[in-house]
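> call design_seq(struct)
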């Protein structure tokens, strides 16, 4: 099932027709009701036939004129709204207004408003921002608003979403690499390798070999059988299994597992492959905001301390 099953151009015409017909029907109903007149004294019975408390009768008088004219005005306003703003199929309205255009204007106004706040941050390196409490407070808010949905409010991630508080980076932990990940996003892909290595039983052998690379408990016999099959994985992970940041290929010699480190998890990864997307943020955040967020991520992962030179205590 695809989006086309739910969204079709015919629906826009259907909604437009229902909208216009509804407005005209309201106007017709008002006109019809407006033709009724209040019954004069002595005329035929003008009640609805409803009686309460013995003698309280409901009259069948027309709607008040002021109420009728107010209703007419709402119909006229609605028709005018559809002329000025988009609402009828592909018609864009005489003002040419779009929600995307309104968003861009609001964003431009906001960027202008917050520019002075970030002016003091742009002159500092990402490593230096890690030592600035104000920059870290701003970076924390940026993280909660834009990254916590996937990586968690504590940035420790979950299965399938990287932990950003450790020193393990799929694409490298330098300021430039992190900034690129935020700006342009990432598309990680591990192809299914079941056929390439000879089926599920061979995948179990490779899984045991992978477990041995990180010093995890493993079956030595199966691990030895999986060693030769691992050559099919070496193109991305390297012959030593230490990965390749240029490809986003994980280091298999540590004990950090993005999709789980049990044999069953590893076998599933080998047989079915994995894919993951880090969305592009350059359309959501300014360069200055990305710079501050980069500094924040380096700080919480410990990369900024590792990269910041320590002042010498020697005379």
């Amino acid at each position: 099932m695809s989006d086309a099953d739910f969204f079709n151009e015919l629906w826009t015409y259907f909604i437009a027709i229902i909208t216009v017909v509804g407005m005209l029907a309201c106007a017709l109903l008002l006109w019809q009701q407006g033709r009724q007149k209040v019954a004069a004294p002595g005329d035929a019975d003008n009640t609805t036939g409803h009686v309460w408390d013995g003698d309280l009768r409901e009259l069948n008088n027309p709607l008040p004129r002021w109420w009728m004219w107010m209703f007419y005005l709402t119909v006229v306003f609605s028709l005018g709204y559809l002329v000025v703003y988009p609402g009828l199929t592909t018609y864009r309205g005489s003002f040419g207004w779009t929600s995307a255009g309104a968003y861009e204007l609001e964003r431009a106004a906001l960027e202008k408003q917050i520019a002075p706040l970030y002016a003091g941050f742009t002159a500092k390196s990402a490593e230096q921002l890690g030592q600035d409490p104000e920059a870290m407070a701003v970076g924390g808010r940026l993280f909660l608003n834009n990254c916590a949905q996937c990586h968690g409010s504590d940035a420790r991630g979950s299965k399938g979403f990287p932990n950003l508080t450790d020193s393990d980076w799929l694409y490298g932990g330098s300021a430039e690499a992190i900034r690129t990940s935020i700006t342009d996003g990432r598309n990680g892909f591990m192809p299914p390798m079941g056929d390439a290595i000879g089926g599920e039983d061979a995948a179990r052998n490779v899984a045991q070999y992978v477990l041995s690379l990180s010093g995890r408990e493993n079956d030595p016999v199966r691990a030895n059988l999986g060693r030769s099959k691992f050559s099919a994985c070496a193109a991305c992970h390297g012959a030593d299994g230490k990965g390749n940041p240029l490809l986003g290929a994980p280091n298999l010699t540590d004990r950090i597992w993005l999709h789980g480190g049990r044999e069953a998890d590893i076998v599933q990864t080998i047989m079915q492959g994995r894919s993951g997307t880090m969305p592009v943020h350059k359309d959501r955040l300014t360069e200055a905001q990305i710079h501050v967020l980069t500094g924040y991520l380096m700080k919480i992962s410990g990369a900024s301390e590792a990269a910041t030179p320590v002042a010498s205590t020697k005379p």
